[in-house]
C-alpha cells in the first residue's frame, strides 16, 4: 500500500467515518496541534535515553494521545464506531505523577518561570506550550461538536505535568530556575498575610 493517496491534493482530508473536510477545519487543526506535541514528546524521549525512569509513563502518554486523536477524528454524527480505547484515567494518573514529582523537589512551584534551564527542561516546556495550543483548538472544536469530557481534562492536565517535569529535571540536574514572578494567587496571598498598618484611633 502506498503512503500517498492523492485524495488531499485539493486541500481536504478524510475523517473517521468517511466524511471529508478542509485541512484547516478546526477539528483537523486540533488534531494537528496534538500530533505536533506528540512528535516533540517523541524527541524528548530520545533525548532522555531508553533507560530513563520517565520512559514508561511518557510512552503511555504518547499512545493515549494517539487514541484521543482517533476519537477527535470522529464527528459525533459518524455512524462508524471507534473501537480505540478512551484513556479514562489519564487526568488522574497525571495528577498522581505531578504530586509524586513535587514531593521529591526541594522547592515549591510558586513562580512563573522562564522556559529553559537545560535541553530536557526546555523540551518539556515546548511540549507544555504545544499542549496548551492543542487545548485552545480543542475548546474551539467543543463549541461546534460534542467531545468526550475525558479528553479536555487529560489535555489540560498534561500541560501541568510537563511544567512539573521541566521543574523536576532542573531540580535533579541542580540547575537554578529563572523565576519571573509569583503566581497571581500567591501574590494575593502574600499581600493578605503582610502586616497591616495600624489604624489611627477614632
From TrEMBL:
<keyword id="KW-0169">Cobalamin biosynthesis</keyword>
<feature type="domain" description="Cobalamin adenosyltransferase-like">
    <location>
        <begin position="3"/>
        <end position="168"/>
    </location>
</feature>
<keyword id="KW-0067">ATP-binding</keyword>
<dbReference type="InterPro" id="IPR016030">
    <property type="entry name" value="CblAdoTrfase-like"/>
</dbReference>
<dbReference type="InterPro" id="IPR029499">
    <property type="entry name" value="PduO-typ"/>
</dbReference>
<dbReference type="InterPro" id="IPR036451">
    <property type="entry name" value="CblAdoTrfase-like_sf"/>
</dbReference>
<comment type="similarity">
    <text>Belongs to the Cob(I)alamin adenosyltransferase family.</text>
</comment>
<protein>
    <recommendedName>
        <fullName>Corrinoid adenosyltransferase</fullName>
        <ecNumber>2.5.1.17</ecNumber>
    </recommendedName>
</protein>
<keyword id="KW-0547">Nucleotide-binding</keyword>
<keyword id="KW-0808">Transferase</keyword>
<dbReference type="Pfam" id="PF01923">
    <property type="entry name" value="Cob_adeno_trans"/>
</dbReference>
<comment type="pathway">
    <text>Cofactor biosynthesis; adenosylcobalamin biosynthesis; adenosylcobalamin from cob(II)yrinate a,c-diamide: step 2/7.</text>
</comment>
